[in-house]
Amino acid sequence: MLTIAFIGFGNAVVNYHLPYLERKENIRIKSIYRREEDRIGDTEREGWYPSIQFTTNLQEVLEDSEIELIVICTHVDSHTEYARKALEHNKHVLVEKPFAATVEEAKEIFDFAASKGLIAMANQNRRFDGDFLTLKKVIDSGVLGQIIEIQSHYDYFRPQYINKGFGMMHGLAVHTIDQLYSLFGKPKKINYDVRSVYHPGESDDYIDIDFHYGQLKTTVKCSLAVKINHPKFIVHGDKGSFIKYSSGHQHKNEHGPTTVSLETEEESNWGTLSFVDANGIDHHELVKSEVTDYGILYEKLYQSIKQKTEKPVKDEEVLAVLQILNDGVNAAKNANYETEII
Questions:
Q1: Domain residue spans in the chain?
Q2: Which pLDDT value is given to residue 342?
Q3: CA–CA dist 8, 12 (Å, integer)
Q4: Which of 67, 80, 169, 301 is deepest in the core (most CB within 10 A)?
Q5: pLDDT tens readout for residues 49-103
Q6: Reduced to 3 DSSP states, what percent helix, strand and coil does the chain have, rounded to the nearest 5?
Q7: Which residue intervals define the domain Gfo/Idh/MocA-like oxidoreductase N-terminal in the entry (predicted)?
Q8: Which residues, in sequence order, are CB contacts of 158 under 8 Å at separation 6+?
């Protein structure tokens, strides 16, 4: 059994952690720390989880000998502070993305964890999105031949939410950049088109980043000004193409905990695959969707803690993605659209 605690109790915890952890028989959520000011007018949700102890005493959590892992789900500016405190008390840490505000802070935490024989890891749970897992399945099958282009979209139509200082690089693009980096690793060159459309120089609210890998180009696009539904993934190879629209697997309740389905989504939302086989025969078919399950990351982390297996999210991947995020933010501020990778 792995006993864990949370620092923070925002929407990410309610929607992307607890619904998956509740299904895990080998993981127990003992407590959640919240600042007193965060509880004002927001205690109803605590009642949804009667088996979890809620506290405003951080020291109580840090000094609890039963707790082995602390999950940090606060604003990025406090990630390093809380991670260091947890590590000082000999707790492993899982930190919500982005892992830290800067590459230097992230290195500091990784080094400190290593010096104590503990695990510090970023919660890159979107590697276990059903859409992304389906994309990987198609690529791994080889039916598309040599992959030439991949487009990844994370779009909404919510221009009313864009305020000064709004950041889509750290808010949305962190997911998709990590997904593609986990597939292909370090690119040879990156082209940034990261703009401050609504508040020039004060936010990054439009993202179009190209990652070049020789003959392969991957593109991450994010916008809050996309009114018509756009495919989540578009892949073109020299033998065929694949398109997948985004899928929803959660049911968010206004007066109760979020529930998730671990069933395969309806066939109407499966991806579309078209390719030419070795005999020159055309194939047009639907690809059965993989299931979204963010609990897989916890299972892999459990194995890393209990069985000393390799961490599912490597330090060098986190550092590389953080550097890309920060370069993108700077591109929006300075209108600098290209970075060579040395």
A1: 2-123, 126-291+323-340
A2: 45
A3: 9
A4: 169
A5: 999 999 999 999 999 999 999 999 999 999 999 999 999 999 999 999 999 999 9
A6: 35, 25, 35
A7: 3-123
A8: 224
- Report the distance separating Cα 135 and Cα 68, nearest Å: 34
Q: Which tokens sit at 295?
A: 């609990």
What confidence score (pLDDT) does residue 24 get? 93
Whole-angstrom Cα distance, residue 71 to residue 91? 10
Amino acid at residue number 145? G
- CATH code of the domain made up of 2-123: 3.40.50.720
- Rounded to 5 degrees, φ, ψ at 6 are -115, 145
Please spell the DSSP secondary structure of 145-180, one letter per residue: -SEEEEEEEEE-B-GGG--TT-BHIIIIIHHHHHHH
Q: How open is the CA angle 79-85-88, to the nearest 5 degrees?
A: 135
Q: Which CATH superfamily is domain 126-291+323-340 in?
A: Dihydrodipicolinate Reductase; domain 2 (3.30.360.10)
